[in-house]
Amino acid sequence: MTARKQILVTGGAGYIGSHMVLALLDAGETPVVLDNLSTGTRLAVPADVPFYEGDCGDPSLVESIIRERDIDTIIHFAASIVVPVSVADPLAYYENNTVKSRSLIERAVRAGVSTFIFSSTAAVYGNPESVPVREDSLTSPINPYGRSKLMTEWMLSDTAHARPLKYFALRYFNVAGADPAGRSGQSSPDATHLIKVAVQAATGKRSGMDVFGTDYPTPDGSCVRDYVHVSDLAQAHLDALRHLRGGGESAVSNIGYGHGFSVLEVIEAVKKESGVDFEVRLKDRRSGDPAVLVASNERAQSLLKWTPRYDSLPVIIRDALAWERKLSERLSAGRT
Ligand code: UFG
């Protein structure tokens, strides 16, 4: 019997990547992590998982890992992810998200990797013409972050036509929450994402929080997003892997629940779950934010047979709060 091929997870020490590593281990797969620890932490990766500290844009390192570990699948998370920073520093985003992805794809093709799963984003749609947004809707990103990811989708699609590589691009909506078993969560103290910021405010790590814009064309004037539990998202990657291994075609799919909550609704829910009435400051719009982003998930359900288990805002918030409290304990015990 030949040994089971291994799966390279770039960005596996980061928030979403670390949940993917856990999901792969739970599914009996063999992950290998490559992470430059720019935002991730070594602690997020179980000690017995092979770990390479380095850059996914480093061709010789990638090539040696692929050969050394007999990699046949790459799940590519390593990226910069903050929309407003991409507006302020677009070239950094094109470098990190597009140029390095190109290098990684090239190494994958040269080394005979058969399967590539890519962490894409709802930001490729920009301000969608209608919601829930379907995968065949116009892709018209309104910020460099979305464009940097869309270009990678194009590179994968073109490469899959020309070479024997299959890919699946998952367009994530707003990922939040933490591993329900408490093994991982969002650990970066400088995170900018709404639910993370709100649970930091609820646990006293911030003196309140800001709402960016209350004059959007939405029921309460704040932006509406489709918040998806990080463990359901990790499961979608396993489903994509099964699809491709089973002979399925390369494709793109949204990953979201198909319903949204406004910023003000999310903040109220965090206050309710935590029992803490933190300060909320109403501010101007943040650049690059679309008003409403909600997924159609028909394709994920039909093609990938994706069956979410945690489609509940209170559950997402409870898991995020539990993780935030765990981080506080770690901090006071001197482990970061
Ligand atoms: N927001 C606040 N205050 C905060 C943080 C966020 O009001 O302190 C607002 C934002 O302005 C936005 C909403 O909360 O209206 C969500 O913002 P996030 O920063 O949490 O997430 P984004 O919607 O900007 O981006 C995320 C991912 C992208 C993905 C996108 C899809 O980072 O990869 O969701 O909706 F494309």
Task: Considering the chains and any ligands shown, give keywords for the structure.
Rossmann fold; binds uridine-5'-diphosphate-4-deoxy-4-fluoro-alpha-D-galactose; 336 residues; globular; alpha/beta; 2 domains; UDP-galactose 4-epimerase, domain 1; 3-stranded mixed sheet; 7-stranded parallel sheet; single chain
Task: Describe the structure in your own words.
The chain is α/β, with parallel strands linked by helices and 336 residues long. The chain has 2 domains: 6-175 and 228-255, Rossmann fold, CATH 3.40.50.720; 194-224 and 259-332, UDP-galactose 4-epimerase, domain 1 (Alpha-Beta Complex). Helix content is 39%, strand content 17%. It is built from 10 helices and 14 strands. It has a 7-stranded parallel β-sheet, sandwiched between helices. Strands 12-9-14 form a 3-stranded mixed β-sheet. Strands 7-10 form a two-stranded parallel ribbon. Strand 5, helix 5 and strand 6 (166-172) form a beta-alpha-beta unit. Helix 1 packs across helix 7 (230-245), helix 2 runs parallel beside helix 4 and helix 6 packs across helix 10. It is globular, with a radius of gyration of 19 Å. It starts with 5 loop residues before the first strand and ends with a helix. It binds uridine-5'-diphosphate-4-deoxy-4-fluoro-alpha-D-galactose. Uridine-5'-diphosphate-4-deoxy-4-fluoro-alpha-D-galactose is lined by residues 81, 83, 121-123, 173-174, 192-194, 197, 209-212, 223, 225, 263, 286, 289, 293.
